[in-house]
Design goal:
Helix content is 50%, strand content 14%. With 223 residues, the protein is α+β, with helices and mostly antiparallel strands. The chain has one domain. Strands 2-1-3-4 form a 4-stranded antiparallel sheet, with helices on one face. It is globular and about 55 Å long.
Length: 223
C-alpha cells in the first residue's frame, strides 16, 4: 500500500514520490548516503528513545532528506500542481508549494521508523492531502476516541477526557522542534522551512489548545 505524490511547478521542476506505508526507509533515500544533519546525535530529540550505538541516523530525517534536497532554494509562494494518488482515490489541487510540501512531509513523517511519530501511522493509512486545521483536529480526535472505545471493549480503562492525546502531542512537539532545527541547518531557501513550520504549528495546536480545537469542531459534529 502506497501514497504517490507528483508535484509540478514548471517544465524544469516536477517531482515524483512513492511513499510505501509499510517500510523501513524511503527507497529513493536508500540510493544516497545520508547527510550529516540526519545523524541521530545531530539535534537529537530530547525524548528520542533510540540509541546511537544501535541507530546511526534519525529515521525520520533520513526519509525527509530527498524532499529537503529537491525543494531547497525554491520559493514557498510559488504555485504548483499537486497530484496525490492513494489506493482509494486521487486528488489534484493548485496550491502554494508550501501547502503541497506540508502535506507530503506529513505522510512521510507519519510512516517513518521513528517510534514517536509511529503513533500517527493510522492517520497515514487514511491520508487526507491538504487537510485544514479543523479537519486535522477532527480526524486526530476521532481516531483517538475510536482507540478508547476499543480499549473499553477489551476491558481496559478508556481515556474519554483525551488526557493521553495531549501527552502524545507534547511528545510530537519535541520531535517537530528537533526536526525543524535539522532542516533549518540544511535548507538554502525558505520553502522547506515554511512548510515544516506550518506542519509543526498545526500539530502543536493540539497540545496547547485542545479545548479550543474541540470548540471549533463541535459544530461540525453536533448540527
Amino acid at each position: 500500500m502506497a501514497v504517490e505524490y507528483r508535484i509540478t511547478l514548471d517544465d524544469e521542476h516536477a517531482f515524483n514520490y512513492k511513499i510505501e506505508l509499510e517500510r523501513d526507509q524511503l527507497s529513493a533515500v536508500q540510493q544516497h548516503a545520508p547527510h550529516e544533519w540526519t545523524r541521530l546525535e545531530h539535534q537529537q530529540c530530547v525524548n528520542c528513545p533510540l540509541r546511537s550505538s544501535e541507530h546511526s541516523h534519525c529515521p525520520a530525517a533520513v526519509d525527509l532528506q530527498a524532499v529537503v534536497e529537491d525543494f531547497s532554494g525554491l520559493p514557498a509562494f510559488k504555485k504548483a500542481w499537486v497530484h496525490v494518488r492513494t489506493s482509494e482515490r486521487e486528488y489534484s489541487k493548485l496550491v502554494n508549494l508550501e501547502e503541497g510540501l506540508r502535506s507530503l512531509l506529513g505522510v512521510i513523517m507519519a510512516t517513518s521508523a521513528c517510534p514517536i511519530l509511529a503513533q500517527l501511522k493510522p492517520m497515514a493509512h487514511n491520508h487526507l492531502p491538504f487537510a485544514s486545521s479543523n479537519e486535522f483536529a477532527l480526524r486526530t480526535i476521532s481516531m483517538y476516541l475510536m482507540r478508547a472505545l476499543f480499549n473499553a471493549r477489551d476491558g481496559q480503562e478508556p481515556d474519554w477526557e483525551l488526557t493521553g492525546l495531549t501527552d502524545d502531542f507534547k511528545a510530537l512537539q519535541l520531535v517537530n522542534q528537533a526536526l525543524w532545527h535539522r532542516i533549518h541547518a540544511a535548507c538554502a531557501g525558505d520553502t522547506n522551512l515554511k512548510a515544516f513550520l506550518s506542519f509543526f504549528s498545526m500539530s502543536s495546536s493540539m497540545t496547547y489548545s485542545l479545548e479550543t480545537q474541540l470548540q471549533k469542531i463541535r459544530p461540525m459534529v453536533m448540527n
